[in-house]
Each structure stands twice: as C-alpha cells, then as structure tokens.
Specification:
There is one protein chain. The protein has one domain: Rossmann fold (3-Layer(aba) Sandwich). 25% of the residues lie in helices and 27% in strands. The protein has five helices and 14 strands. The strands form four sheets. An eight-stranded mixed β-sheet has the order 5-4-1-6-9-10-12-13, sandwiched between helices. Strands 2-3 form a two-stranded antiparallel ribbon. The longest helix is centred in the last third of the chain and has 14 residues. The chain starts with 9 loop residues before the first strand and ends in a 5-residue tail after the last helix. The protein binds ligand PMT. The site of ligand PMT has 27 residues, from helix 1, helix 3 and strand 9. Its EC number is 4.1.1.36, 6.3.2.5. It catalyses: N-[(R)-4-phosphopantothenoyl]-L-cysteine + H(+) = (R)-4'-phosphopantetheine + CO2; (R)-4'-phosphopantothenate + L-cysteine + CTP = N-[(R)-4-phosphopantothenoyl]-L-cysteine + CMP + diphosphate + H(+).
C-alpha cells in the first residue's frame, strides 16, 4: 500500500496528549493515545510525503521509519516545535488533544497534603491550530480535528471557521467506536465549501486514508 500521491509534500502532524505540570510529580492531561495521529502520519509517509510528527508523551509512534518525530510534553512545547516547522510545510494536520488550560504556577516541590480541599489556578494555553492558522500561507492546507460531546456539527463548523482550517474531522464522544484510545473511529469531514463526508466505524488506518482522500479534494489556492 505505497503510492506517490503526496510525493514532494511536507506534512506536519501534531498528535497525542499534552501534559501540564502541577508540581514535579503531577500533571493535567487527557486520554489521547496518539493512535489517530500515528495512522495519519503513516498514511502520508506511505504516500511519499516528508512527515514531521510533533508527539506528546506516551503517544503511539508510527511504523514508517522515515517519519521525523519531535517529542514534546506541554502545549507550549508542542507550539514551539510546530511553529518552527510550520513555515516550510505544505499540509498541517492538528490531531493532538491539547490542554486548553495549564496551572498558572508550577510548584517547585511536591505539593503537601494539607487541609480538606485545594484550588489550582489555571491559565489559558496557546491555541496551536488557531495561532498557526493566522500565519497560513496561500499554498498551505490546514486540517483540524474536533472532539465533541454535544452539539457536534455546530461546534465543528465553528472551529473550521475560527481556526482557518480547510477541512475539519469531527469525532464524537457520543458515538460508539469513535474517539480516544480505541483502534477504530467514526468521523465526519467538513470542508470550507460547506460539503461533508461521513464515515462508518472503521480502523483508524482506514479513517486516515479517508482523511488523505479528503485533503486531495481541497482546491489549491495558487
Ligand atoms: O489519540 P487517540 O486516542 O487516537 O484519539 C484521537 C483523538 C480523539 C485525540 C483525535 O481524533 C482528536 O479528535 N484530536 C483533537 C482533540 C481535541 O483537542 O479537539 P478540540 O476540539 O479540543 O480542538 C480543536 C482543534 O484545535 C484540534 O485540531 C486541536 O488539535 C487544536 N487545538 C486545540 C487546542 C489548543 N490549545 N491547540 C490546538 O492546536
């Protein structure tokens, strides 16, 4: 299953969870396994693309040995790595589950158990896809994801527009066989021109191929 559909293209993919430190032993994170991002990275690499994968801690690694991996921990680190690469890329896929907020202060020592409750003050993280979306060049294609629990289509379309994506991949937490951790996913692709495509529940490798087919449908703007 090798082809040359994306030969000569440089592809940036973010994948996996971010970890936002609370103190030296604790963090805030989410359930992303990196399976979806790894499948997309392999699909592009097996289609001749030069793939750069910015990968959260513990996230699944792709199989194709030519993929360049940039390990990161926090949303800030993910942003640093992605923004250094962005200018040279042709296609960017934002598959990572990035923490929207991080602790305002990281305690330098392990926080002691004192009192019956505690409060951690959080501050907003950089939105990687939104920030790079503002720097998107005419020849570049940006693909985003939306992970939703309610009002799925509305939120996905809002993110498509706000983050300047050319296509957004919606997966719903309400859908059996879709989302975090699983080897399968069920998605809808929404394009800028208002069209959309729905998938069945399929292995993430098949979903990745469908996403690549979606990218091929995006009109080149040059
Ligand atoms: O890793 P798996 O276990 O295989 O699961 C796959 C997945 C469910 C994580 C994946 O398919 C997915 O949906 N990834 C995006 C999850 C997410 O954070 O969605 P969101 O709706 O919160 O974010 C919208 C988009 O903005 C995403 O493209 C996200 O990468 C991006 N974003 C969000 C916040 C932020 N600070 N920076 C970003 O770049």
């Amino acid at each position: 299953h090798y082809n040359t559909d994306f030969e000569g293209k440089k592809v940036l993919i973010t994948s996996g969870p971010t970890q936002e430190a609370i103190d030296p032993v604790r963090f805030i994170s989410n359930h992303s396994s990196g399976k979806m991002g790894a499948a997309i990275a392999d699909a592009f690499a097996n289609s001749g693309a030069e793939v750069h994968l910015v990968l959260g801690v513990g996230a699944k690694k792709p199989k194709n040995p030519h993929i360049k991996i940039y390990p990161v921990r926090s949303a800030n680190e993910m942003y640093e790595a992605a923004s250094k690469l962005h200018g040279k890329m042709d296609i960017c896929v934002f598959a990572a589950a990035v923490a929207d907020y991080a602790p305002k202060n990281i305690a330098s020592e392990k926080i002691k158990k004192e009192g019956d409750g505690m409060t951690i003050e959080l501050v907003k993280n950089v939105d990687i896809a939104y920030t790079l979306g503002k720097a998107k060049q005419a020849h570049q294609i940006h693909v985003g994801f939306a992970l939703e629990t309610e009002n799925e289509v509305f939120h996905a379309k809002q993110k498509l527009e706000k983050k300047n994506f050319d296509m957004i991949v919606l997966n719903s937490m309400r859908q059996e066989g879709a989302g975090f951790q699983l080897d399968t996913n069920k998605v809808s692709l929404f394009f800028e021109d208002g069209t959309s495509i729905d998938s069945e529940v399929l292995p993430k490798e098949q979903i990745a191929k469908m996403i690549l087919e979606g990218v091929k449908k995006i009109p080149v703007k040059i």
